[in-house]
Automatic annotation (TrEMBL):
SUPFAM superfamilies the record matches: UDP-Glycosyltransferase/glycogen phosphorylase
Family: Belongs to the glycosyltransferase group 1 family. Glycosyltransferase 4 subfamily.
Residues forming coiled coils: none
InterPro entries, sorted: Glyco_trans_1, Glyco_trans_4-like_N
Full protein name: Glycosyltransferase
Enzyme class: transferase
Presence of the UniProt keyword Transport in the record: no
Domain Glycosyltransferase subfamily 4-like N-terminal: 14-154
Keywords: Glycosyltransferase, Transferase
Domain Glycosyl transferase family: 169-335
Residue spans crossing the bilayer: none
Its EC number(s): 2.4.-.-
Length: 363
């Protein structure tokens, strides 16, 4: 079967990284994969390095209606059996319209658990023959929004290899100005409200009193950085909480975290949670969205109610006080990453969805 994949993200992380993983693992004797991306996108170079065909199409924005014609002409040229659209925020609708006009079955990947507005439910989802949700949480959010199309759950994946080769400990300590006795909590998320940094900050002061060598490294960037830095100052946490920005080389550092805190109020699945599992880092996350599928409570981490300070503080205290428990969760996380969240498992689930759509379409 010939499948055209549309991904308009420019950077190779998040959803675009998942597309690259998928294309590396789909069996080439069964699937002739073609990537369509915007010019100079990082995913284009990554997929080209796999020896797969890459087609660059310009897209000036979410309302670039001319993209429909450009993509439809390319589909008519390539004559695929199926279109798999990975992008959102405009490209999903424009790509779906192009596939419909080219009379090619189309699948949409959905990676977030935000409720869908009725306009999307009414006009976007009917463009697709099936939806691939990255977690049961995303699937449930789509159903709650009224989406009636076929929804298959195919979870995101992680390549464990780079997460198991961290930089030397001395380099980690030097790079982040840490004492060798530091206990480190890592936070890897955009600095936006729904990631729950404010809840974590409120939970920290009593823990710092018990663990004066505690340090919190917040990786990521976003609109709330100044507000969060101000909140940390007001709580007397300026020396404890450090906002270190976005790091492309996160795999060099994550294995040195004593634990990962992910107090997000909502999350489709949480690739960061998969990366932590692969790196052997115990996780505290929230019982919301797809997070319980990545963090098995009492197995590789602890789940707490979203937005509640006291349960988060109690979970943090439990792990900070028990190195043996952290180690047990770390070992379980590695096993979880190797089984439930392997790239091969994601490719297998996606291929099954392709076959079901094509069979239904009589192809």
């Amino acid at each position: 079967m010939k499948v055209v994949h549309l991904e308009t993200g420019r950077h190779l992380y998040g959803g675009a990284q998942q597309v690259a993983y998928l294309l590396s693992a789909l069996p080439r004797e069964l699937v002739d994969s073609h990537l369509v991306c915007v010019p100079d996108a990082q995913i284009g170079a990554a997929v080209a390095s796999l020896g797969l065909p890459v087609h660059e199409l310009p897209m000036t924005g979410d309302l670039d209606l001319a993209f429909i014609g450009r993509f439809r002409r390319l589909l008519r040229q390539l004559q695929p059996d199926l279109v798999h659209i990975h992008s959102r925020r405009g490209a999903d609708v424009l790509g779906g319209l192009a596939a419909r006009r080219a009379k090619v079955p189309a699948i949409l990947s959905r990676r977030v658990d935000n409720p869908e507005p009725w306009l999307s439910v009414r006009f976007k989802y009917p463009l697709f023959d099936a939806v691939l949700a990255i977690s049961n949480g995303v699937r449930d959010a789509l159903r709650a929004s009224g989406v009636s199309q076929a929804i298959e759950v195919v979870r995101s994946s992680v390549d464990p290899a780079p997460w198991r080769e961290p930089a030397p400990r001395e380099e980690f300590l030097r790079s982040f100005d840490l004492d060798e006795t530091a206990i480190t909590i890592g936070v890897v998320a955009q600095l936006i409200m729904r990631k729950g940094h404010h809840v974590l900050l409120q939970a920290l002061p009593p823990l710092v009193a018990r663990h004066p060598n505690l340090r919190v490294l917040c990786f990521g960037q976003g609109s709330r950085r100044e507000a969060l830095e101000a909140a940390a100052r007001e709580l007397g946490l300026s020396e404890v909480v450090r906002f270190v920005g976005f790091h492309k080389d996160l795999s060099r550092w994550m294995g040195h975290f004593d634990l990962l805190a992910h107090p997000a109020l909502m999350e489709g699945l949480g690739v960061t949670l998969l990366q932590a599992a692969a790196a052997g880092v115990p996780v505290i996350a929230c019982r919301a969205g797809g997070m319980p599928e990545a963090v098995h409570d009492g197995v590789n981490g602890i789940l707490v109610p979203p937005g509640e300070v006291d349960p988060l503080r109690e979970a943090l205290a439990r792990l900070l006080d028990d190195a043996a428990l952290r180690q047990r969760y770390a070992e379980a996380g590695r096993r979880l990453a190797d089984t439930e969240f392997s790239i091969a498992a994601m490719a297998e689930g996606t291929l099954a969805a392709y076959r079901a759509v094509l069979a239904s379409a009589g192809r």
